[in-house]
Amino acid sequence: MLQYPNLEQALKYHFGYDRFRPGQRQIIEDALQNRDLLIVMPTGGGKSLCFQLPALIKKGLTVVVSPLIALMQDQVEGLRNNNINATFLNSSLNPYKVRSREEAILSGKVRLLYVAPERLLSERFLPFLDLVKEKIGIAAFAIDEAHCVSEWGHDFRPEYRQMKSLRKRYPDVPTLALTATATDRVRADIIQQLGLKQPSIHIASFNRQNLYYEVRSKTKSAYAELLELIRENEGSAIIYCLTRKKVDELTFKLQNDKISALSYHAGLSDEERSSNQTRFIRDDVRVMVATIAFGMGINKPDVRLVIHFDLPRNLESYYQESGRAGRDSEPSRCTLFFSFSDIKTIEWSIDQKTDPQEQLIAKQQLRQVIDYAQGTVCRRTIQLGYFGERFDGNCANCDNCRYPKPMQDWTIEAMKFLSCVARCKERFGMLHIIDVLRGAKSQKIIQNEHDQLSTYGIGKDKSVDEWRMLARSLLHQGLVEQTSDGYSVLKLNPLSWEVMRRQRTVSLAVPVAQKITWEEGSEKAAEAEILMQRLRSLRKQLADEQSVPPYVVFQDSTLKVMAQVQPKTLTEFGKLSGVGSHKLSQYGDKFLTEIRAYRQEKGLIDPPQVKFTPSVSLPSDTEIVTFQLHKQGLSVNEIAKKRNIRPTTIIRHLTDLIEKNQPVDINQLVPLEHQQKIWQVLEVLGDISLTPIREQLGESYSFDEIRLVRGKWRRENRK
To answer: Which residues are paired to 576 by β-bridges?
Structure first.
């Protein structure tokens, strides 16, 4: 192995980052022990680094199996820009280029080789791999998009199944299987199909904290709202539609409204699709309007907006497609426009399926999407629950949490509903239970004698929609379950019985009509944003000179810190997150020159401290109630419980009260040591959004703590 004082130093030297993301260090340590690994980590979580860094530390060649040409070319470009010797072999190369790259590999000049599964297992390539093993050694096989090996995965590829032969041919070479999404069933299939030996299994949280999720009704003004979203949010955007026709229509309308937009769908020629994709990746065009054919091979980390203008077919697809936003962990927005007319379109396509079981499952998946769109609980609770991850809500970064609906006690109704499920012997779905509760006289009810049950007709006072709302909320809160066999039969669990025994209360968010607005823009420091635009322009110029996407030069997160800190020397520049040794020498002087020119034009001597200067207003009535309870010594959770509103809302009240110069005891809310550290970071970074502040501080600092201290910092900087 190549020696470094520690893994953090290797990370900074090659990639420019000071610390690992959650889970990365343990995975890399296991990889360096030559263990087989199964890594399930969501998009933007840093999967690639988990095999790239070990490849630079271990001896020999790391072979990366990737299913798409665009994806492997993207990754190789990024590695080369960090002065890392990586290459790919695929059908885009002529025989001369293939031979010259193979010679470079055999002479030990290449650390990472990207190949497609078809080439890897070809008769010509395997003997070459034998030669590589003999001359320089094979450090590991990294199987990217490993869910493709499973028939239960969302993108099954038969050629992936044949990779088990690698284990027989090279039994002592460790295998790393990596995927962004995999249920229990798919994970078991990956282990079996790839022949992994006692693998170390790492499953990261599916929670993408930097993404703001919202659902809007697709009314007549939907296009105007979409246009407003694009104009309000800087950076690249992807808009997904169900049909090619809708893609072309929307692209035409956007172009007429002076938005630089292109189409992407299977109806275009290969050449046009490839050209449009390249122009989007290199920031020559801002918006891509696409069917779901677009996206899997895109490694563009700075997409700031993903809009589903039509309903997605299932929650897994939605999670993946919306997850193409903010892969660099910067704040980004995911908006879904919901219309009942989309349901008819999807139902028609489901009816075209010939397999009855496939139809059943597709219909259940559609119901789950509708439940998500109409849900009133935290969007993350629903999304993460789909992947088997428990999340208690209060994410503070979705429409349902930021703009909570009034809560009502529905414990009695929940007891009625769950009792009806029990009396129907847990053999029926949601609509049948609602029909029984409302006293319907359907043939199904009469045949099963459910009109004789004690729960028959006891829910006539609520509408079908109200009962549906309750049932969805019970499912999302884990207070009842349903089968995943396509029939969606409701099943009770221990929490269901706690409700029925009055040991657990059930609160329901009642929907209210409300226009959702995006707040993040108001938190940007204006001066830093002007410099940010200049740094973006320089980045684009340098990227075009090298024919690479701009994010390969520096990611947005690095430019943001650069604009806030405004380093004066190469030493200061090298300390920025995202600036490694190679990029420091390659770009440092150019960016420092741009920063100096900006500061001279502005007549700046010291780095500007960004002041937050809103008009100070008086506390609202609801804030006064929270303040009185806080003065009594109650905790945030106690106040929330007493007022029957979310703890995140209480935090917002207290933050606003601090900014309005009210004597909130912040020591009661945030440990002094944390206050001091957060304050130091704010002094350096200024008044920016919470996510980059937390990245500087680390996982032990909560968003609530940062929000409260930032409120005090704003108040002090206003004086």
So the answer is: none
Residue 533 neighbours by CB under 8 Å, 6+ apart: none
pLDDT tens-digit series, residues 517-576: 334 333 334 567 778 888 988 998 898 888 888 888 888 888 888 888 888 888 888 888
Q: And the tokens for 691?
A: 């996510």
Per-residue confidence (pLDDT) for residue 154, from 0 to 100: 56
Question: Measured on CA atoms in the order 125, 127, 130, 132, is the torsion positive or negative?
Answer: negative
| 524-602 topology per CATH | DNA polymerase; domain 1 (1.10.150)
Retrieve residue 580's tokens.
């490694």
CATH 1.10.10.10 residue window(s) in the chain: 407-509
Looking at this protein, which amino acid is placed at residue 618?
Answer: L
DSSP, res 153: S
pLDDT digits (tens, 9 = 90+) for 64-116: 998 877 778 878 888 988 889 999 988 888 889 989 999 999 999 999 999 98
DSSP state of 261: E
**What is the number of alpha carbons within 13 Å of residue 552 lying toward its C-beta?**
25
Half-sphere exposure of 279 (CA within 13 A, CB side): 16
Number of other residues whose CB lies within 10 A of the CB of residue 648: 22
Q: Say how many C-beta atoms besides its own lie within 10 A of residue 460's C-beta.
A: 10
Give mean pLDDT, residues 573-582.
Answer: 86
The owner of tokens 């996982």 is: 699
Into which CATH architecture does domain 407-509 fall? Orthogonal Bundle (1.10)
Percentages (nearest 5) of helix, strand, coil residues in the chain = 50, 10, 40
**Please, which residues bridge with residue 482 across strands?**
490
Give the CATH fold of the 7-203 domain: Rossmann fold (3.40.50)
**Which residues are registered as beta bridge partners of 40?**
179, 203
**What CA–CA distance (Å, rounded) separates 105 from 113?**
8
Is domain 621-718 given the CATH code 3.40.640.10 in the classification? no
- 519 and 417 in contact (C-beta within 8 Å)? no
Nearest-angstrom CA–CA distance, 651 and 640: 9
Confirm if 379 and 400 have CB atoms less than 8 A apart. Answer: yes
Tokens of 634: 């109650």
Who wins on pLDDT, 616 or 713? 713
Ordered alpha helix ranges (H), 5-48:
7-15, 24-32
Rounded to an integer, what distance in angstroms lies between the CA atom of residue 328 and that of residue 304? 10
The Cα–Cα gap between 137 and 325 comes to 38
Distant-in-sequence, close-in-space partners of 619: CB < 8 Å, separation ≥ 6: 627, 656, 657, 660, 662
Buried b or exposed e, range 623-632, using 16+ CB within 10 angstroms: beebbebbee
> What is the model's pLDDT at position 297?
55
Report yes or no: 241 and 309 within 8 Å, Cβ to Cβ.
yes
Q: What token pair was written down for 365? A: 């998946």
Helix (H) or strand (E) holding 305: strand 303-308
Rounded CA-CA distance 127/122 in Å is 9
Give the Cα separation of 448 and 533 in Å (integer).
68
Quick check: 432 and 443 in contact, CB under 8 A?
Answer: no
The answer to whether 377 touches 506, Cβ cutoff 8 Å, is no
CATH 1.10.150.80: which residues of the chain?
524-602
- Per-residue burial over 367-390, b if 16 or more Cβ lie within 10 Å, else e, is bbbbbbbebbbbbbbbbbbbbeee
Task: Considering the chain, tell me which residue range(s) the CATH 1.10.10.1390 domain(s) occupy.
Answer: 621-718
Q: Note the CATH number of domain 211-401.
A: 3.40.50.300
Beginning with the edge strand found earlier in the chain, give each strand of the sheet holding 211-217 in spatial order: 211-217, 332-338, 303-308, 236-240, 287-290, 261-264
Where in the chain are all domains bearing CATH 3.40.50.300?
7-203, 211-401
Question: Dihedral of the CA atoms 79, 82, 84, 90 (nearest 10)?
Answer: 20
